[in-house]
Specification:
The chain has 336 residues and is an alpha+beta fold. The chain folds into three domains: 2-21 and 238-333, Immunoglobulin-like (Sandwich); 33-57 and 80-113; 121-236, Cupredoxins -  blue copper proteins (Immunoglobulin-like, Sandwich). It contains nine helices and twelve strands. Helix 2 (32-64) runs antiparallel to helix 3.
Length: 336
């Protein structure tokens, strides 16, 4: 167990040094909104590049022209003044046309971020310092469930994210699927996402929200509808009962310590709401908002000293003996 914890620390150090590392690019578009924004980016870059080249050509030409020495009063050349007036008027008109074109195309590209339909899957995402609470809504309240920092969506279906900030302003951004949308306390926002290809897409908070802003990542997992339905059905189930004595001891320690006051594990007496829902935490790819992979070693390291791994987070230090730490990490890893 100690060796597993030690193995997790080098990877954690790399993540701390890398900040918000990981592959995410608005130019690697696999969503309807992202494709529209990519086209807008290319259009703006191309037009601005052409404008820049024309300005540079005009500047170089002006600087390279020979000027006759001024030995007499300068005569006003009416034809030259006319040509310059025409040139300046054309430049002003071109500027107005370019800016107007950018405004119109940006308007239509932005509208795609909030397109809603009757068959949309609705997912509520709340941003907190520094993690993401994700709530899925079913046909009845009994079908609702929560997870954290990992969002599953079906491919080819519009998903409407209801975004809210619970403490400060955050910003929800999955570059490969859609544009940014802010999460503002007291002001709900919406963002529509449609993944056109299955895959795992990294997202990031794009608004500075505190000292651990760079370590506030999440993953959107786009999968076929059948796979999504199986995942959702599994998430609705209560936590599995411990299968061995070590995990059973970990469950007892978890419920008897302050852990149960902050976290919820459905099917047990743990009903806290101030921390992430841990009902199926062992099935998630990462913990601590993408900080490091979900392994028993990383879970133990996080429980033992969360403030060293992610300074300033709201998880308090919980005093555990060595045996309690080992058993609690075994219990959480078993919650698949």
């Amino acid at each position: 167990m100690r060796r597993e914890i030690r193995r997790s620390l080098p990877g954690l150090a790399c993540l701390l040094l890398a900040g918000c590392g990981g592959w995410q690019s608005a130019m690697d578009a696999h969503g309807t909104s992202a494709a529209s924004l990519k086209q807008l980016i290319i259009l703006i870059v191309v037009v601005c590049s052409v404008v820049w080249m024309l300005v540079m050509i005009a500047l170089i030409r002006a600087l390279s022209r020979e000027r006759a020495p001024r030995t007499a009063p300068v005569d006003v050349d009416a034809e030259r003044v006319r040509r310059m007036s025409v040139f300046i008027s054309a430049a002003v008109a071109a500027t107005v046309i370019v800016i107007s074109g950018f405004t119109v195309t940006s308007f239509f590209a932005t509208r795609r971020l909030s397109v809603a339909g009757p068959d949309d899957l609705t997912v509520k995402v709340s941003g907190l310092q520094w993690w993401w609470n994700v709530q899925y809504f079913g046909a009845t309240p009994a079908e609702n469930f929560q997870t954290a920092n990992e969002i599953h969506i079906p491919v080819g279906r519009n998903v409407r994210f209801q975004l809210e900030g619970d403490d400060v302003i955050h910003s929800f951004w999955v570059p490969s699927l859609a544009g940014k949308q802010d999460l503002i306390p007291g002001r709900p926002n919406e963002l529509s996402v449609r993944a056109e290809r299955a895959g795992i897409y990294r997202g990031q908070c794009a608004e500075f929200c505190g000292m651990q802003h760079a370590h506030m990542a999440f993953f959107v997992i786009a999968e076929p509808q059948a796979d999504f339905d199986r995942w959702a059905e599994m998430q609705r189930q209560p936590a599995a009962q411990p299968a061995d004595s070590e995990a059973a001891a970990g469950q007892q320690a978890f419920l008897s310590k302050p852990c149960a006051a902050c976290h919820s594990v459905r099917g047990t007496a743990a009903t806290g709401t101030s921390g992430p829902d841990l009902t199926h935490v062992g099935s998630r790819k990462t913990i601590a908002a993408g900080l490091f992979d979900t392994t028993r070693g990383s879970l133990a390291a996080w429980i033992a000293d969360p403030q060293t791994l992610k300074p300033g987070n709201n998880m308090p230090m919980v005093t555990l003996s060595r045996d309690e730490l080992l058993s609690v990490s075994a219990y959480l890893a078993s919650l698949k």
